[in-house]
UniProtKB/TrEMBL annotation:
<dbReference type="InterPro" id="IPR020667">
    <property type="entry name" value="DNA_mismatch_repair_MutL"/>
</dbReference>
<dbReference type="InterPro" id="IPR036890">
    <property type="entry name" value="HATPase_C_sf"/>
</dbReference>
<dbReference type="InterPro" id="IPR042121">
    <property type="entry name" value="MutL_C_regsub"/>
</dbReference>
<dbReference type="InterPro" id="IPR014762">
    <property type="entry name" value="DNA_mismatch_repair_CS"/>
</dbReference>
<keyword id="KW-0227">DNA damage</keyword>
<dbReference type="InterPro" id="IPR013507">
    <property type="entry name" value="DNA_mismatch_S5_2-like"/>
</dbReference>
<dbReference type="InterPro" id="IPR037198">
    <property type="entry name" value="MutL_C_sf"/>
</dbReference>
<dbReference type="InterPro" id="IPR014721">
    <property type="entry name" value="Ribsml_uS5_D2-typ_fold_subgr"/>
</dbReference>
<dbReference type="InterPro" id="IPR002099">
    <property type="entry name" value="MutL/Mlh/PMS"/>
</dbReference>
<feature type="domain" description="MutL C-terminal dimerisation">
    <location>
        <begin position="419"/>
        <end position="562"/>
    </location>
</feature>
<dbReference type="Pfam" id="PF08676">
    <property type="entry name" value="MutL_C"/>
</dbReference>
<dbReference type="GO" id="GO:0032300">
    <property type="term" value="C:mismatch repair complex"/>
</dbReference>
<comment type="similarity">
    <text>Belongs to the DNA mismatch repair MutL/HexB family.</text>
</comment>
<dbReference type="InterPro" id="IPR042120">
    <property type="entry name" value="MutL_C_dimsub"/>
</dbReference>
<feature type="domain" description="DNA mismatch repair protein S5">
    <location>
        <begin position="211"/>
        <end position="329"/>
    </location>
</feature>
<dbReference type="Pfam" id="PF13589">
    <property type="entry name" value="HATPase_c_3"/>
</dbReference>
<protein>
    <recommendedName>
        <fullName>DNA mismatch repair protein MutL</fullName>
    </recommendedName>
</protein>
Length: 605
């Protein structure tokens, strides 16, 4: 075997394999160059998903003849003036992107420095660099990449359809555009304009505008601003309310020092932050901007520069989780108001006219007060366990009464108002000073129980209540084994289980908080979870998950009648409970219609 140094064109092609794996990667490199050059407007044109053509034009600083020549040389960069890889302020720093593209495509740079009289153009084809030639062009730079991978047919075969390459390009550009709202970004594929993002003002409002342009108009009313600062690290951005979730994580945007990154640590932190308020298969919508001294983060981890490594990763993670949770807890009562718009929309979509014609004449008397109906069913629901601090069953008014009750004075003054009726044995209708509120009783109660369980866990532990008659629950043998393997954990959660022969367990005590519950169902589900989790699960994280399951089974179900005092007690509890705007699955616990919404609905305004 003879050792030999590889010729530079081959070296570049090998490097290109890492840096430029598809058209979107080339777009990313070229747009980053434009950003580093101080451009305020960047235009990207592609043809055939970037496979035939990628052209990126900017109005940045431009390059003169000599700079053009150097720009396509390997390891030539203007961005590392001090040789310090730990102190990087630009998006580029390796001097690899242009030579890599030049090695696998037909590359042409045309550039004119700001204030210079002439433009120059330089072509690279399959690694061969031609001499710069005079050209006609405005100030700034235009880079054209034609026939990507024509020089590496193997790579060409791996390219996907025009459609999916175009999607990838759009995604890359969108992320860069979110990082820099003060810069205009435009993308056309063939004749079609795919992104039109004019420059926004610097600052928070501009950022939110850009986010809205990307995510849709409904993002802003469903988002919370965040801001945290710790040990030189700043975290800003906007996070979606838990009720505003998506089926994929594609709308999670993370930026570190202005660089879009897809980092596992950050993604995990977002998941952790929302874990309590979002179902497992749903994904939050967030745009997080992390700014920290360049020396605290290593961006030279991945050839595409999309991953970073933090010096203090624990601190960063903790900061993200803490900041998001804090913001969400503070917004508990905003969550579902944001849903109102959609609800209102569906109200208005009714063909009102036809409905009216079908109605029989209305009695002149106002419809019987809804609360009256509610009061007829005042018997406390069997087994509804009032939460500590809630009205006790003995406080309840007599069970049967026909006349509408006078609301307890001042109830309307509470944020969630005075309960007026229970509808379909599922929803609580409450009147507030400024409108009406419709509460999903199960969702709301589930959240309350869950928060109580969590608080008790963190505090002196969950109180247990012995069952008068211990209950035998049957299940699959393997599930029973998994459940019994963790007896101590269940005990901590207030559940006492014992073996009871193959495929069965005996339950002696349950968490006192839960009240009446579907015990066999709950224990079976917990056993399933224990089996799925296997042996090595982190106790605290999963305990919360388990507590959520318990809360679900131990909560007032839909279809159970509630008395007015019970309903009011529930409302009062919601007001003081963190995250009570949504249930543990990220569904809203209540929606709200303001008076002006009502007036709009009825055309009074
Ligand atoms: N659009 C542009 N406007 C002005 N100068 C540019 C432009 N694109 C590239 N350059 C110059 O060409 C040099 C080489 O660009 P290239 O992308 O190959 O490397 P880099 O940006 O320095 O590092 P990286 O490989 O990490 O991207 C840059 O350092 C810059 O000086
Ligand atoms: Mg670059």
């Amino acid at each position: 075997m003879r050792l030999r140094l590889l010729p530079p064109t081959l070296v570049n092609r090998i490097a290109a394999g890492e840096v430029i794996e598809r058209p979107a990667a080339a777009v990313k490199e070229l747009v980053e160059n434009a950003l580093d050059a101080g451009a305020t407007r960047i235009d990207v044109q592609t043809q055939d998903g970037g496979k035939a053509l990628i052209a990126v034009s900017d109005n940045g600083c431009g390059m003169d003849r000599e700079e053009l020549r150097l720009a396509v040389e390997r390891h030539a960069t203007s961005k590392l003036p001090t040789d310090d890889l730990l102190n990087i302020h630009t998006l580029g720093f390796r001097g690899e992107a242009l030579p890599s593209i030049g090695a696998v495509a037909r590359l042409r740079l045309t550039s004119r420095p700001q204030g210079a009289a002439e433009a120059w153009s330089l072509a690279v084809e399959g690694g061969a660099i031609a001499d710069p030639a005079p050209a006609a062009a405005g100030a700034g730079t235009r880079v054209e990449v034609r026939d990507l991978f024509y020089a590496t047919p193997a790579r060409l075969k791996f390219l996907k359809s025009t459609r999916s390459e175009t999607d990838a390009i759009k995604d890359v550009l969108t992320r860069l555009a979110l990082a820099r709202p003060e810069i205009g970004f435009f993308l056309t594929e063939g004749e079609r304009a795919l992104l039109k993002l004019p420059a926004e003002p610097l600052g928070d409002a501009g950022r939110l505008n850009r986010l809205a342009a990307v995510l849709g108009r409904d993002f802003a009313p469903n988002a919370l601003p965040i801001l945290a600062e710790r040990e030189g690290i700043t975290l800003t951005g906007h996070i979606g309310l838990p009720t505003y979730h998506r089926g994929t994580a594609a709308a999670q945007f993370l930026f570190v020092n202005g660089r879009p990154v897809k980092d596992k640590l950050l993604v995990g932190a977002v998941r952790g932050a929302y874990q309590d308020v979002l179902a497992h298969d749903r994904h939050a919508v967030v745009a997080l901007y992390l700014d920290l001294p360049p020396t605290e983060v290593d961006v030279n981890v991945h050839p595409a520069k999309t991953e970073v490594r933090f010096r203090e990763s624990g601190l960063v993670r903790g900061m993200i989780v803490g900041t998001i949770r804090h913001a969400l807890a503070g917004a508990g009562h905003r969550a579902s108001t944001a849903m109102t718009g959609a609800a209102l929309g569906s109200f208005q979509a009714q063909p009102v006219q036809t409905h009216f014609t079908q109605w029989r004449p209305i009695e002149s008397r106002p419809a019987p007060a809804l609360a009256e109906a509610a009061y007829r069913f005042q018997a406390p629901p069997a087994g509804f366990a009032p939460l500590p601090g809630m009205a006790q069953p003995s406080d309840f008014a007599p069970a049967a009464r026909a006349e509408a009750p006078l609301p307890a004075p001042g109830e309307e003054a509470f944020p969630l108002g005075a309960a007026r009726a229970q509808l379909h044995e599922t929803y609580i209708l409450a009147e507030t000073r400024d409108g009406v509120i419709l509460v999903d009783q199960h969702a709301a109660h589930e959240r309350l129980v869950y928060e109580k369980l969590k608080a008790a866990l963190a505090d002196q532990g969950i109180a247990r209540q012995a069952l008068l008659i211990p209950e035998v629950v049957e299940m699959e043998e393997s599930a029973a084994e998994a459940l019994l393997a963790r007896t101590a954990d269940w005990q901590q959660l207030g559940l006492m289980v014992e073996p009871f022969g193959p495929g069965a367990v005996l339950v002696r005590e349950v968490p006192a908080l839960l009240g009446k519950l579907d015990l066999p169902e709950m224990v079976r589900e917990l056993a399933e979870q224990a089996r799925d989790l296997g042996d090595g699960f982190a106790l605290t994280d999963k305990l919360h998950h388990v507590a959520a399951t318990m809360a679900c089974h131990g909560s007032v179900r839909a279809g159970r009648r509630l008395s007015v005092p019970e309903m009011n007690a529930l409302l009062r509890q919601m007001e003081v409970t963190p995250n009570s705007g949504q249930c543990n699955h990220g569904r809203p616990t209540y929606v709200q219609l303001s008076r002006s919404d009502l007036e709009r609905l009825f055309g009074r305004k």
